[in-house]
Amino acid sequence: MYSFSNITNLQADLKAGKTTCIALVEDAISLIEQKKHLNAFLEVFEHSAKELAKKTDEKIKAGTAGKLAGVIIGLKDNICYKGHKVSASSKILEGFESLYSATVVEKLLAEDAIIVGRLNCDEFAMGSSNENSAFGNVLNPLNEKHVPGGSSGGSAVAVAANMCHVTLGSDTGGSIRQPASFTGTIGFKPTYGRVSRYGLIAYASSFDQIGPITKTVEDAAIILEIISGIDKHDNTSSSQKVTSYSKEITVDKKYKIAYLKECVEADGIDPEVKQSILNQISWLKDNGHSVEAVSFPYLEYLVPTYYVLTTAEASSNLSRFDGIHYGYRTKNATTLESTYKKSRAEGFGKEVKRRIMLGTFVLSAGYYDAYYSKGQKVRRVIQEKTKEILNNYDFILTPSTPGTAFEFGKNSADPIKMYLEDIFTVQANIAGIPAISVPCGLHSNGLPIGLQLMANYFEEAKLLNLASKIKS
Ligand code: GLN
Can you name the residues that pair with 74 across neighbouring β-strands? Predict the structure, then answer.
């Protein structure tokens, strides 16, 4: 079986004839089968993956293959791939097939990547533990009693357990970075607008971004430079130039870094996570970077702001799932109205319903000013403060999460406790800036610890550059 290290080596080995795309697909399919109990994959696209592999092997022989030839990629189950099922891990989309491909999928296929299947996640990307999927929990391969993180849990596990080379996830409040942190992988959330959202099933449209989960920072850079760029199908995509992130990674630069005092000193942060972050700070200083503590006085407002605004957007986005247009329709209705009501009542899970209700409430005429409009104002305050810090520093550094991967069931009874798991990751989405989680050591419980770096708008190259230097 081919042992994958990174995309660059894979390209060289394919060219040298040390392996073939079809062999890589067969390896991936047999590993997915062997590790089925982790429940990372909802479906393997065996037929189309093998077809792509055969075509790509021909292209390699002819010297015409793209930059991602033979790279085996899994998609979070909220990214559309024409002619393939997509369900957002929800019963309400059971049986639904994508009518078109997401722009990111088109871009990956244009470089001859091989899409091998779709990955389990929290229903409609709402969750921090993957316990909200309609198709069961995903297990953390590093300790199967612990969650893999969410909502892109299947995407993180597929990379951590070597079932594919790279995966795509989506990040609305940490759903790429938090599972990356819990599984010892790299998770990158781009600047809002850097990557087209066309073909991503929307959760909260002013927060959502697609990004890669990979084994190395260099691979994240390679994938990101391919999926980024303006798209006529997404008006929020940016025309800002995409540079060669994977080349810029090698530059050796010294940076000015701010770490957020309140995050490192937060109540409830695991002492070993804190120590590991402090060790990284010393290491960065020893290596010529300047690192200073900076105050961020709005830490306690991050999670409430995030949950007021994202539930509002979700209640609007999810209104399209009505039992008529897509997927699941109740068999117990007699009128149009009862079709809507029963299809939604039967099709959505508990957490999704909670958020639709919360979102409807914060947007309701009587409470709009008190919640939604207030939330928008606080969002602006958080954005301004974040920008102010990034005008004086190259990066903001925090832990990715307050602790390591927790046990199944630990936060299930208390949604607020679960929502607080996102305390360090939501800032980047509220502000719209890019952020990455990289492994930065092991806890004595054997689970990985993640370090988060955030940078200014469209500074993905700089972010990847420093991230590639962090020692795990
Ligand atoms: N855990 C957060 C939530 O439940 C983030 C989800 C995400 O980024 N998609 O909303």
Answer: 117, 167
Residue identifier of the C-alpha nearest atom 5 of ligand 1: 173
Could you tell me if 361 and 367 are in contact, meaning their C-beta atoms sit under 8 angstroms apart?
yes
| pLDDT at residue 413, rounded to an integer | 87
Beta strand 114-119 with 41-44 is: antiparallel
Helices 46-62, 21-34: crossing angle, 10 deg rounding: 150
pLDDT of residue 265: 85
Give the mutation target among 302, 422, 429 for probing the ligand 1 site: most ligand atoms within 8 A of CB.
422
How many other CB atoms are found less than 10 A from the CB of residue 321?
A: 25
Distance (Å) from CA 125 to ligand 1 centroid: 6
- The 8-class DSSP code of residue 277 comes to H
pLDDT score recorded for residue 416: 87
Q: Is 101 in the pocket of ligand 1 (CB under 6 A)?
A: no
Neighbouring CB atoms inside 10 A of 360's CB total: 16
Dist CA 331 CA 324 (whole Å): 12
Instruction: Identify each DSSP E strand in 247-314 by its residue range.
Output: 256-260, 290-294
Nearest 5 degrees, angle CA 140-CA 303-CA 142?
10
From atom 10 of ligand 1, which residue's Cα is the shortest distance away?
126
Q: Is 411 in the pocket of ligand 1 (CB under 6 A)?
A: no
Q: Is 76 marked active-site?
A: yes
444 catalytic? Reply is: no
Neighbours of 197 (CB within 10 A): 24
Residue spans of the domains in the chain: they are 7-248
For the question of residue 316 being annotated catalytic, the response is no
CATH architecture label of 7-248: Alpha-Beta Complex (3.90)
Q: Please, what are the averages of pLDDT over each run of 10 residues along the chain (472 residues)?
A: 97 98 98 98 98 98 97 98 98 95 98 98 98 98 98 98 98 98 98 98 98 98 98 98 94 95 88 96 96 96 97 98 92 95 97 98 97 98 98 98 96 88 96 98 98 98 96 78
Q: Which of 128, 129, 151, 228 is catalytic?
A: 151
211 within ligand 1 shell (Cβ under 6 A): no
300-320 b/e (C-beta count within 10 Å ≥ 16 → b): eebbbbbbbbbbbbbbbbbee
Q: What are the tokens at 116?
A: 């091998």
Q: What are phi and psi of 169, to 5 degrees?
A: -130, 180
Ligand 1 atom with the smallest distance to the CA of 355 is 10
Pairwise CA distance, residues 419 & 379, whole Å: 17
62, amino acid identity: A
- Tokens matching residue 109: 């296929």
3-state SS of the chain: helix, strand, coil percent to 5? 40, 15, 45
Number of H helices, E strands in the chain: 17, 11
